[in-house]
Amino acid sequence: MTLFQELKTRGLIAQVSHEKELEEILNNESVRFYTGFDATADSLHVGHLVQLTLMRHLQKAGHKPYALLGTGTTLVGDPSGKDDIRQMLTVESIEKNADIFKAQMGRFVDFSDGLENKAVFVRNGDWLLDLKYLEFIRDIGVHFTVNRMLAAECFKSRLEKGLSFFEFNYMLIQAYDFLHLYRTEGITLQLGGDDQWSNVLAGADLIRRKLQKNDAFAMTTSLLLTKDGVKMGKTQKGALWLDPVKCPPYEFYQYFRNIDDADVINCLNMLTFVPVEEIAELAKFVEAKDGAKINQTKELLAYEMCKIVHGGEEAVKAQNAARSVFGDAGESADMPTTVLDAADLDGGKIGAVALLVKTGLCPSNRDARTTIEQGGFSVDGEKITDVNAMIEIKEYVVIKKGKKTFHKAMVK
User: What positions carry a catalytic annotation?
Assistant: First the structure.
């Protein structure tokens, strides 16, 4: 199986410009490619994993990856998929976020010195922040038509609610990134998520129009969606972050351990490096609705994901913690834990509502009461339905919220 065939089999590739030419090049030559990451938060999240996984596949096949940190484009903000203008960040915040991204990416692509196709970091603020606007518009804007830009999906979805001229510049700026990297680094392929197709294609088109070159390509990856077509990676606490502080390894493991049966094979294909032949065999168990085998497949997915993001040691800890809970042992040092002060207890006891709020499992007393009344709260395997119940904690208790969320509460 060729590289391109494997990427297709895994469902990673969504759209490609000049597909036959690019397939031939990827299978037989060494290509320099890049993916852009706007530094809008202080951590990467699970939505970035498809891009990072594809970068790793390509690097392992001999191609050279460039990770473009959007220290310039983040000042504008991509309007794609947003109902309103993005939050305006300071240059200092963006640079700080970019540094965090840089540290996290080292688990996915190889930046080691001495490697012939070692990955490289670049920051587009290095060339965008010093641009003179009138010169930029004369040089780049002349190659874009407003009609064509407005037809792009990333803009169409915003026209009714309002699209600022500020954001309208984003496509031109991203396209200029590709032109700049083509000229300075010899990069001929830009990657992006499929919701970025218009922006990614604009860069390749700009190179072909302005430089009359035919060796610039655009390729987008499939979005990581659930079986219902919803973007995967949303939790009660928000995005599924790769930062172990924002999302502890145990919680990260549990997310993938508890995904819908219909999503497990897609995740294995798109996010892991388990051989496609092995995944195809596992898919047979899912199709046959073999519950025990499906659970084993989910364990494999959760372990592989945790190992990739947090390392093998943390993956083992998370797996052992999960097995401890589901095996009714009820004890694990690696389970998410809240340490309560003695002042939080009255005679060694704490109210059920207060316990849910103190551990962060519920954001408010009202939400905690609703959870209890609806039968979604258990302590050490015993369901609690009385909102006025007092929970005794001698050393620790294991709390279960809903069907899948486990937490340990301890006293000092």
Answer: 40, 45, 48, 82, 86, 174, 195, 231, 234-235
